[in-house]
Amino acid sequence: MRFLIVLSVFFFFVACSTKEYVSKEAQIVTIKSPKLKFNDIGYVLHNGQSVELQLYSAGTTVEDITINHLVCIEAGCMSKSAFNEEYLSAAYEDDLLKNLLMKKPIFGGKNLKKRDNGFEQHLVTKAYDITYRVGRDSLYFKDTKNRILIKLKSINRQKGNK
Q1: 15-19, 33-37, 53-57, 106-110: which range is least confident on average?
Q2: In what order do the strands lie in the sheet containing 71-73?
Q3: Handedness of CA 30, 36, 42, 46 (dihedral sign)
Q4: CA distances from 128 to 38, 79, 143, 156 (A)
Q5: How many angstroms separate the Cα of 60 from the Cα of each of 99, 131, 154?
Q6: What CA–CA distance (Å, rounded) separates 132 from 136?
Q7: % of the chain at pLDDT higher than 90
Q8: Distance CA 121, CA 105 (A)
Q9: Which string of b and e fits 64-103 if b means at least 16 CB within 10 Å?
């Protein structure tokens, strides 16, 4: 019995512990979809397994999206497919948003073309028409069929280039 109590306490503290993120980068974030609209500063944090997108407006957090085995937003947590269906497109792969935020190829790297300092993908089906470009300091994702635009532009590197 004592073992179960100790084990329960251990899992409680591990589950509530602060995540250690490998990367935290300030970005200018643009998200336009039928259900999401945002254009301001955000932070993308990741540790390889979890990704978090913190969105700010006038210095105040307006949304915090955490992606691991679920997608958690202020309204609650849901499966990745349920999040895609409600906020993006049901035709998208489950890890699409996570891969975008980590600047990884989507849909298994289909139609991947390497570019200087990044890559590009163009994917067309009956359900979507996607242009996806990743550069050293930026990300551009546009799906013309579903009217979705996601752009990230690094703030830190912009300052260093001036």
Answers
A1: 15-19
A2: 76-78, 71-73, 60-67, 51-57, 37-46, 23-32, 148-154, 138-143, 129-134, 118-124, 112-115
A3: negative
A4: 22, 21, 6, 33
A5: 26, 31, 19
A6: 14
A7: 69
A8: 8
A9: ebbbeeebebeeeebebeebbeebbbebbebbbbbbbbbb
